[in-house]
Design goal:
about 20% strand, globular, five-stranded mixed sheet, about 280 residues, 9 strands, alpha+beta
């Protein structure tokens, strides 16, 4: 019996070593491929996790983080990104699709929403002890979000014992530059005790491509009845909340808006709250 346990321990250890070696091999392979881009100044690739794909024997999903510095003007840009790759130990690919259903197997690999992500700063409606927790990552200037998100929030806020609604700012600066200062201004207003900031933010009428900070704040303050100033957007408290929202989004591999989680699980339909008993 003792010798069997020793053999089992040796096998587990050997498998762990092989897995670690394979992870290093994947990191080296991807780093070499990414560095073929001449704009990359520096690069670090790290395997964070591996998840077995139960529906496809012998294949794992590999969650990889990429930290790079990319040459750009007027100054180089830092890039931090999580990616999903698939491997069977011999082949590595970024897409694996079920030919019977057309479903991308990436859909079955998503980091779980951790309980620590539910903070009092993100709770906008409902009780923290509510039956269901709904997390929303959104950009108020996203065309679809501008109608869907407030409608969903308005519906759930009617039932504070049923839904705890948590909101996370996730502006898309390349598409909607104005969304970044709006998100920071919203946080500043909430810190001042202004109510219903999130919903009112979605009713703002402003060009998503507006870059003039003075113009953006004029529209925001007129809508909210506040006096948020440029300096308020860079306060320690505002930046801490804003950056924490982005950090959580990055850890969850959120890439678009709106993205919703229902009781810690990604809700691709964005409608599970409607079916909750």
């Amino acid at each position: 019996m003792l010798s069997m346990l020793k053999l089992l321990a040796t096998t587990v250890l050997l498998n762990s070593v092989l897995l670690a070696n394979e992870n290093v091999k994947i990191e080296q392979f991807l780093a070499e491929k990414f560095q073929e881009n001449p704009a990359i100044v520096s690069l670090n690739v790290k395997v964070l996790d591996r998840v077995k794909i139960n529906s496809v024997a012998g294949w794992d999903a590999v969650i990889v983080t990429v930290d790079a510095v990319v040459e750009a003007k007027p100054k180089n840009q830092e890039v931090h990104q999580k990616m999903i790759w698939f491997t069977n130990g011999e082949v590595i690919t970024q897409e694996l699709t079920n030919i019977n259903t057309g479903e991308s197997l990436k859909d079955s690999v998503n980091p779980e929403f951790k309980n620590e992500y539910y903070t009092k700063h993100n709770l906008i409606y409902g009780k923290s002890t509510a039956k269901y927790k709904v997390a929303i990552f959104s950009d108020p200037l996203c065309p679809f979000c501008s109608t869907f998100v407030p409608e969903a929030i308005e519906e759930m806020k009617k039932y504070p014992d049923k839904f705890a609604v948590y909101y996370y700012h996730f502006p898309l600066p390349r598409l909607h530059p104005a969304a970044v200062p709006i998100a920071k201004a919203a946080i500043a207003a909430e810190l001042e005790g202004i109510k219903n900031v999130t919903l009112r933010m979605y009713n703002m009428k402003i060009d998503p491509h507006e870059k003039d900070l003075r113009t953006i704040l004029e529209v925001f303050n007129r809508k909210m009845g506040t006096d948020i100033k440029e300096a308020d957007l860079s306060s320690k408290e505002v930046l801490q909340h804003y950056q924490n929202d982005l950090r959580i989004a990055e850890e969850l591999m959120v890439s678009g808006t709106p993205t919703m989680f229902f009781d810690n699980k990604l809700d691709r339909t964005k409608r599970l709250y409607q079916k909750a008993p």
